[in-house]
Structure formats: C-alpha cells, structure tokens
Amino acid sequence: MNRTDITSTEEISVYGFTDEGKQKLEEVRQFMADHIYPNEEEYYEQYEALDNVHATPAIMDKLKAAARERGLWNMFIPHLDPDAPGTKLSNLDYAPISEELGKVPFASEALNCSAPDTGNMEILNLYGSDAVKERWLAPLLDGEIRSAFSMTEPDVASSDASNIELRIQRDGDEYVLNGKKWFSSNALRPECKVLIVMGKTDPDGPRHRQQAMIAVDSESPGISFGRDPKVFGYHDRGGHPEVIYQDVRVPADNILGGEGEGFAISQARLGPGRIHHCMRSIGVAERALELMIKRSLQRETFGRLVAQHGVVQDQIARSRIEIDQARQYVLYVAHLMDTVGNKSAAQEISGIKVSVPNMALDVIDRAIQVHGAAGVTQFTPLAHMWAHMRTLRIADGPDEVHKMTIARREIKRHSPDFRMFDVDDGSISRPGVG
Ligand SMILES: Cc1cc2nc3c(=O)[nH]c(=O)nc-3n(C[C@H](O)[C@H](O)[C@H](O)COP(=O)(O)OP(=O)(O)OC[C@H]3O[C@@H](n4cnc5c(N)ncnc54)[C@H](O)[C@@H]3O)c2cc1C
Predict the structure, then answer these.
(1) Cα–Cα distances in Å, from 307 out to 312, 318, 349, 362, 376?
(2) How many C-beta neighbours within 10 Å does residue 348 have?
(3) What gap in Å lies between CA 237 and CA 240, rounded to an integer?
(4) Is residue 351 in contact with ligand 1, taking CB distance under 6 Å?
(5) Position in ligand 1 atom list of the atom nearest CA 397
(6) Are 388 and 403 in contact (CB under 8 A)?
(7) Ligand 1 near 112 CB (within 6 A)
(8) In a mutational test of the pocket of ligand 1, which residue from 54, 152, 265 has the highest number of ligand atoms less than 8 Å from its CB?
(9) How far apart are CA 217 and CA 135, in angstroms?
(10) CA of 390 to the centre of ligand 1 (A)
(11) pLDDT for 173-208, tens place per residue?
(12) Average pLDDT for 272-299
C-alpha cells in the first residue's frame, strides 16, 4: 500500500480493529454514499416544510429501514444482550464508524445511534428493572420511540450536580417528583416517551449519595413544558425545553439502580455518551476541512487560487495535524474503555471531552474564514456545525469542570491528601451532565 492510499483511521491506527469492525465500517461508508449524502437536500427540504420544528422528516423512516436491513443498527452498545438488536461492537471498532456518521448531522439517527438515546439506552440496559427494560429499552432499541435525559435545572448551577433540587419522595409503592428542569434535550419530540430524571431522594445524605435516577413516562399527569430555548438562534430538533414536574407519581420499580445511586449512574452513562460526541466531532472536523479545501480551490484572489496563499495552506495543514492528533487520543480512550473499563478511563474521557470539541471549533472557524461571507450563512453547513460544536464545551459538563477533575487527579498523584475545597469533594469527579 502506498502512503497516498492511506485514507482512513483503521489503516493507520496502532490499535487492533477486529475484522468485523472493519467490515462494518466499510458497510457504513457505503450506506453513507448510497443513502445519506444523496438525501441531504431532501432531508432538509422536508424539515423546512414541517409544521412542528420538533417533528421528524418522513424520509427518516426510510433511512432507518434501509440501515436496519443492512444490519447497521445500534452499533454503539458493546454489552447488549445476545438477542437484542445491535452489532455489539467494541468502543474501538465503533469509533471510526461514529466519525463517519458525524459528517452528516442526521446520519447517526438513521442507524439508531444518536444522542441522547445512546446514553439513555446504556443506563436502561445497565440499571433498569425487567419491566422498565420491556417498556422502554426494547422500543428504544427498535428505534420506535425516543428519550430524554432530565438533570440540569434552570435555578441552580448544575455543573455541580450536587446542587440539583428536584425532589423524588417515596410514597408507598410510588415515588412523587417535584421540581423544574431545563435543557432536557429531545423532550419535545412527539416520539419521546421516556424521561430519565435525576433528583434527590435524600437531601440530608452524603453529598454524592443524595441523588437517584428514575425512568418517567413522558405523558405522566403533572408533567408540563415551559420555555423552549433556541441555541444560537437555531431550533434544535427535539428542543431543550423546561420541564416542570408537579406531583408526578412514578412506580417505585422505575428507580434506576437504587436510591443514592444517581451520581454513580451518571458516571456510567456519561463515559460512552461523551466519547460518542467526540467520535462524531472528529467527523464534523473532517467535513469542515474538506469544505475548506474545496472552497479554496474554487475562488481566486490577487491573481491566484485561495488555496495557493500560504496562510490558507497553514490553516489546512494545522487542521490536518490537529484532527489526526485528536483522533488518536479518542482511539486511545476507546481502547482504554474496552480494556480497563469506563470508570478507570474517566480521566482520559474528561481529556477528550475538553480537547476534541475545541479542536473541531478551531477547524470549523478556519473553514468559515476561507468561505468568506458564505461561511456564516445557511448556504453551507458550517455555521450550524459551529453552533452545535460550541454547545459541546458546556453540555455534558463544562470544560472547566472536566479540567478541574483532571487537575485534581494529577495533583493527588503527588499529594494524596490534597482537597480542592473545604467541603467533601468526592462528587467533583463526576461533573454535571446533559
Ligand atoms: C445544547 C445543550 C444540550 C444539553 N442537553 C442536556 C440534556 O439533555 N440533559 C441535561 O440534563 N442537561 C443538558 N444540558 C445542560 C448541560 O449539561 C449544563 O448546561 C452543564 O452541565 C452546565 O450547567 P449550567 O448550565 O447550570 O452551568 P453552571 O453550573 O451555572 O456553570 C456556568 C459556568 O461556570 C463555570 N464553572 C463552573 N464550575 C467551574 C469550576 N469548577 N471552575 C471554573 N469554572 C467553573 C463554567 O464556565 C460554566 O460553564 C445541555 C446543554 C446544552 C448547551
């Protein structure tokens, strides 16, 4: 093989992708070529024509059927039950697949691999009772319903999850929920049937044993929706609404894991959820670089192609270097998750959670610059890409909190008794979620 033939992650990585993983990656690339890229325009035209900004363009059902028929379905859960639908690929094998899907915003959904359902399915799979799994996990795995994760609250700083106030109180064989959330992404989708809610069962317990998570039927009496924030002026499909829980009664069996387990579960959920965002973000950056180069080859300034200006070549070269660095970091973390487990890889998961979206933002920003005015319009995907990528510096825990947890562990290696704060700081190893 010539060096110039090497175009993809698995060919240049030092990690051992399985033959099945390589095969699935090829199939996903073919699926993108056959079904996703040719339908990009159609998807957005259908979306623009919808009355409800949170509804799903009709073409999505066709794409899902085509993906499932090819066995490209639920590719993100390594530890699914043997008879559950999905490929059961490792995190490492899934990484380049997710990168491919990241190149088009709606592609992951077609393969039932999109956030926030991926993280939510992980939680239900690990912590749901048999009844909860039957009611919500099975239809989620089948792509029939969608879900939302409801932790962040408008009235408290939720990047410190010990601040959250929603109460989950036991009453006989039910729990009663009272409180207000927002940024429960996806909750306004007509297909969203289950909310995973984090609240306090024991406000007087140790700081990180006060919380629990519970699966809640989205149509339960007592649930209502408030404001629906736009993001940088965009309506994200599914929304990030305020959700008001007023005396919402939930069967006790719906508790996930048990009372006091909320923090520990958020750790389990957020590892996979976070790395999936990073894998997709590499794909976003690749697409932005491709657009940057194509544009620079189309237009001339001062007597030469934009691509012939050294400054632009510097932007292209830096982007290639930074994408390749970030990709190897993500693959390393995927390998760690597969080999030592999500909890032991928490430090490195925080590392990619900070570095990859920042890298992708820089690449997108350069691509916008090379496009001139067109780069900030709706006529290229770049502006929307940037807006979405910028949110990843906040969602699933802000950069600063992840850096704090990394620094804490690093400092403790040299000073085991070190404490960040005068309060019990056990909870800060698990930054706020979303
Ligand atoms: C697009 C999007 C989607 C989201 N989806 C979900 C979802 O589905 N479910 C959900 O529950 N939540 C979701 N969230 C919410 C997200 O998880 C929270 O916004 C995040 O955890 C931060 O909480 P906060 O907004 O309350 O900010 P705050 O906690 O008020 O923090 C504000 C800022 O304070 C600074 N800060 C905080 N701690 C430190 C520190 N230790 N050191 C230095 N600076 C610090 C940071 O700059 C931080 O951004 C989403 C957010 C976005 C933007």
Answers:
(1) 6, 14, 36, 18, 20
(2) 21
(3) 9
(4) no
(5) 21
(6) no
(7) no
(8) 152
(9) 10
(10) 12
(11) 999 999 999 999 999 999 999 999 999 999 999 988
(12) 97
